[in-house]
Amino acid sequence: MTRKRSLYRWNVVIIFFFFMLLHQTDKLLIGPLKGQISEDFGITNTEFGLVISGALIVGTVLYPIWGYLYDRFARAKLLALASFVWGSTTWLSAIVRSYGGFVATRASTGIDDSSYPGLYTLVADYFGPEMRSKVYGLLQLSQPIGYLLGMVLALMVAPGLGWRNIFFITGGLGLVLAALIYFGVKEMPRGKAEPEFAGMEEMATFKFSWAQAKEVFKKKTMWFVFLQGFAGVFPWNVITYFFFDYLAKERDYDEGSVLLTMGPVVLILASGYFVGGWLGDWAFRRTRKGRILVSSAGVLLGAVFLFLALNTPVEARGTFFVFMALTAIFMPFSAPNVISTVYDVIVPEVRSTAQSVEYFIENSGAAFAPILAGVIADAFDMGTAILWVSITAWVVCFLIYLGALFFIDKDINVLRTQMAERAAAEKARLS
Q1: Which one-letter DSSP state was computed for residue 31?
Q2: Percent of the chain at pLDDT above 70?
Q3: Domains in the chain and their CATH numbers?
Q4: Enclosing H/E stretch for 341
Q5: I want to staple 133 with a disulfide (CB 3.0 to 4.6 A). Which of 53, 340, 370, 380 is the partner?
Q6: What is the pLDDT of residues 98-126, one digit of tens each?
Q7: What is the gyration radius of the CA atoms in the chain, in angstroms?
Q8: What are the start-end ranges of the H helices in 163-254?
């Protein structure tokens, strides 16, 4: 690979990083801005919940559609379209003056929320299997950092500018990034970075087929990926929606203490994406089970340290912070490695579809998590809800990963054989 081409692919990563960072900021702003928006429209908590649910439902339903489109057409151009939709719908939600209009426009912002599979598969065609997890971990740093940026905008900027102007700013950035992606990111042939095609300047175009899409569900490794996707989102959603309130009401943290505790923890969590991705690539180079082993270690250690944190006495704030920081570093280990595992076993032309199905299943699990935690919290307390929902889900994920270990080698070997056969056929065609 020439130095110029190597630098270009990192430029693509930088563009995608800022796309994800600002998109996550825009997406997650709605929570911290709840007070201003509710007061402006004069709505209840239930009515505000409907605003959140609308975007989640739209995003979930559209995952398979986006996945299919990404496997059929140019992903770079579709990502530019997604960014344009993000900017446009955010602007619309800032313009409307009625509650019904706001529900509709915020629901429409979910259209682009299911666009990430195309981004990840395009990156997979710039970077080979032995580098993918660390690149995905680097990109996923943007998600928790975007959450923090959203908090800063909501708490420090919005009181002066107003929530509508904040949405005009983030929506405008979406439109800028749409142009940047459209003109600055080149489409890459599907499968270009597979090791079997190394050194080949020209290669055939792999096209989506329903036959290959059906093969996704025949891969036993994917069965376990889908199962862990459903269970794995429970801790994330429970902690996201309940942890700040838990700190305030059950550990007696004031607003300043919450920010001083959770700010560093979220930054540590962000680093866990890259650390987990780096370890996944390191382990994968030594055994094809490596990514699964790193993922399983992450969920197990996350469960242990969360248990220790939530059982720490209220007055021992320093100890509590240490255990939460350790929980945060291990929580994201699975995220970059699961994406890479999908691409380790699925042919290039249906990877977006496979990833979209996995995300569809994840979002289905996400819908149940807050409800289950709420029932437990009402029956006992929030600490109990967070602890037992999270630990149960992570133990289930650990067992699921153990099951995947029995099939991952075979499924990877099948893909590598397919890629070798395609490469040999392409070389014969070009000779």
Answers
A1: T
A2: 98
A3: 3-188 (1.20.1250.20), 210-430 (1.20.1250.20)
A4: helix 334-345
A5: 340
A6: 999 999 999 898 898 888 899 999 999 99
A7: 22
A8: 163-184, 210-216, 220-250
